[in-house]
Amino acid sequence: MISFELSDEQKAIQKVAREFAEKEIRPVAAEYDEEEKYPEHFIATAFKAGMTYLYVPEEYGGQGMDFLTACIVGEEIAWGCCGFATILGANNLGTTPLLVAGTEEQKKKYFGELTSRPSLAAMALTEPDVGSDAAGVKTTAVRDSGDYVLNGTKCFISNGGMADLTTVFASTDPSRGVRGLSCFLVPAGNPGISGGKKERKMGVRASTTCEVILSECRVPASDLLGEEGKGFKIAMITLDKARVSVACNSVGIARAALEAAVDYAKGRVQFGKAIAENQAIQFMLADMSMDIEAARLMYMKAAWMETQDMPFTNQAAFAKTFCSDMAMRVTTDVVQVFGGYGYMRDYPVEKYMRDAKINQIWDGTNQIQRIVMARALLGR
Ligand SMILES: Cc1cc2nc3c(=O)[nH]c(=O)nc-3n(C[C@H](O)[C@H](O)[C@H](O)COP(=O)(O)OP(=O)(O)OC[C@H]3O[C@@H](n4cnc5c(N)ncnc54)[C@H](O)[C@@H]3O)c2cc1C
Q1: Nearest alpha carbon, ligand 1 atom 48
Q2: Fold of the 121-229 domain
Q3: Of 109, 114, 235, 259, which residue has the fewest beta carbons closer than 10 angstroms?
């Protein structure tokens, strides 16, 4: 049974999320972007408003939303600012491995700590020499009686160095490539984990992106997630969800950009009439609205498939790629509609364009997503 109508409950949650973005994010988004500053207050505000750990079940202290509803909220938060959305998105990225592979005891312990107060989580997979090809992870985890000892450097980690919990991917058997990858829970109090270089970025500048250094980091064996060698599978299941989140964030950015373009086109007068009176501008706006509609349907289908326990890897790749490419097209065209003013920092649209770009790169680049799609087509 297919319905294109949100339920009353979903509409109510969407409204709350939109109002939250309108009140708590939009007024300060430009300031945090300009100063490339982490909004210290934000996680407490989001916690109070019920905007954290959206799809973590209520029994573990989360909001207990289904994944589709969480994505609808995600679109609204990214409509507010994709940098702020990244802070909350990294929390989901960091805790999805725990949801996917945690024992009851691990979930109770760690979600109990994370969901009872404002908190941050991070997922650390990427390394300086290891991006798209996770098989090459160099961070090692060596068994030493009741512990594992982790050593290595992770880079580009969202919420890195400041997270209360970091899920770290390390190799317990480098000779086995991806089959030697394992996943560990590393809480902030561990003296072996620390933040390194903080990155300076093109966009999503309210979010902190940092190196994470693991130096003789002792992790009790009870904090291994799943079994040794199952880390790659945990990462892939986590990334399927993350890709749909990237997709809904992209739609949020594009929608914000289109709204700005419509307003501007109605008010900007050239040759004695509003630029919106020109068919060339109208067609650009029309194409943008059509693109956004198609993209929204795509992320919603992928998220819905997740709620139905259907395999959704390919649909997640479609959604991530289409929605992020769409957001790049739309935000670039919106800058064009604004003309020279679009290029200036006084208006929000150059920020939308900068923020949109990352969605084509992270959580598996759009080239890697096309490899996923081609494999499905070719039956590999
Ligand atoms: C702001 C930001 C935040 C991030 N947050 C996190 C985080 O929280 N946790 C985390 O673990 N990682 C994070 N990342 C890392 C991110 O997921 C990686 O940057 C991404 O997966 C790409 O890896 P790479 O940068 O090493 O690019 P590379 O893998 O070096 O790729 C470079 C280029 O080559 C292309 N390419 C590579 N292999 C192929 C191939 N086989 N066929 C065709 N093209 C190919 C890629 O598509 C890309 O265009 C973040 C990155 C950024 C920029």
Answers
A1: 365
A2: Butyryl-CoA Dehydrogenase, subunit A; domain 2 (2.40.110)
A3: 259
